[in-house]
Structure formats: C-alpha cells, structure tokens
Amino acid sequence: MKKVLMLLAVAVLMTVPAMSQVVTMKIGYVDSETILKQLPEAIKAQGDLDALIEKWNGAVDSMSVALQSEFADYQKQQANMPEAKKQEVQQRLVKKQQDIEEYRRSKFAQGTGEIYRRQEELLKPVKEKTFKMIEVVAKEEGMQFVFDKAGDILLLYADPLYDITYKVLDKLKRGK
After folding, report:
1. CA separation (Å) from 164 to 65, 108, 149?
2. Running DSSP on this structure, what letter comes out for residue 81?
3. Quick check: 121 and 2 in contact, CB under 8 A?
4. Nearest-angstrom CA–CA distance, 113 and 105
5. pLDDT by position in tens, the chain (length 176)
6. Which is nearest to 27 in space by CA: 132, 162, 166?
7. Residue 9 resides in a domain
C-alpha cells in the first residue's frame, strides 16, 4: 500500500510541472492575392501572361474568322459542286475546326494548357521570394504558424492584429 501511494505521489508530482508549462503560440496570416497584386515583379509577370493570352486569343479569333469565311464561300458554291468536291471541302472545314479546338486546348486547357505552365514558370521566382520573406517576417514576429488567407486553407476568422501581409510586402519591395 505504501508503494502504491508513493508511486501515485511521484506520478502526481511529475505531471504538475508539465501542467504548469503553458506554451503560447503565435499565429499569423498573409493574403497572397494582395501581395501578388501589389508586388512589381508579380505585376510584370501577370502582364506578360496577359499579353500571351491576348496573343493566343487573337490567333484563335483569326483562325475562326478564316474558317467562317471559308464556310460562307462553301455554302454559296455548294449547289454547283460535284459531290466529291463537297465532301473534300467539308472534310477540310471539319479539320480546320478541329485544329482550332486543338490549338485552344493546347493553350488554355485547365491544368495542362501552356498558359498554366507559363504562369508557373513566370510566378515561381516571385512565389519563392515571397515564401522566404514570409519566413523572415514570421521569425522576426515570433510566429510559429502563418496561414494564407487567399489559399485553399479555410480561415474562418483572422484578427487583423496578426496580419503580416503588408510587412511581407514592404520587405519584398525594399529588397531586405
């Protein structure tokens, strides 16, 4: 019985210091969309991306106009065409339509289109620089965790006191 009481007393004494050590955790968040909208390198990368999109959309538009023109010509002349010629022109028109769709898919397909590869290529250096600066600011502020308010991680409430977005943005702009 004495041994049981002694073991119980030791166990209680061992847990008391553990319970008295309260660990405070400091958590912060950033809004990466705000950073990407205001950081000069990100703005330039987005401008380059927008120029590519405009160029590719222009190519799709010009191919579509050419196809529509050729189709209109075909409709005007089809009554006087031999059947073999009609089928040849129809096949050519279908092929051109497929080519336009393939071009559009190669440039803009969700996740696999060239636009997504180019976006990653253009924004990768910006993201790496931003992540490094987030780490610097978080360490300076003594934060253990930093969430991205704009990302896929759901953040239901955030006290603006812990928003380090503009500190990160300021350091990125100053290059420190």
Report:
1. 50, 34, 11
2. S
3. no
4. 6
5. 544 433 444 444 455 455 556 668 888 889 989 999 999 999 999 999 999 999 999 999 999 999 999 999 999 999 999 999 999 999 999 999 999 999 999 999 998 999 999 999 999 999 999 988 988 998 898 888 888 888 776 564 667 888 889 999 999 998 86
6. 162
7. no
Structure tokens at 101: 């769709």
How many domains does the chain fold into?
1
DSSP 8-state secondary structure symbol assigned to residue 156: -
Cα maximum dimension of the chain: 114
Tokens of 92: 């050519």
**Residue 148 φ then ψ, to 5°:** -100, 115
Look at residue 146 and tell me if it is in a domain.
Answer: yes
111 assigned to some structural domain: yes
- Amino acid identity at 99: D
Q: Are the C-beta atoms of residues 143 and 164 closer than 8 Å to each other?
A: yes
For 38, the domain range is 21-174
Backbone φ/ψ region at 142: left (φ over 0), alpha (ψ -120 to 50), beta: left
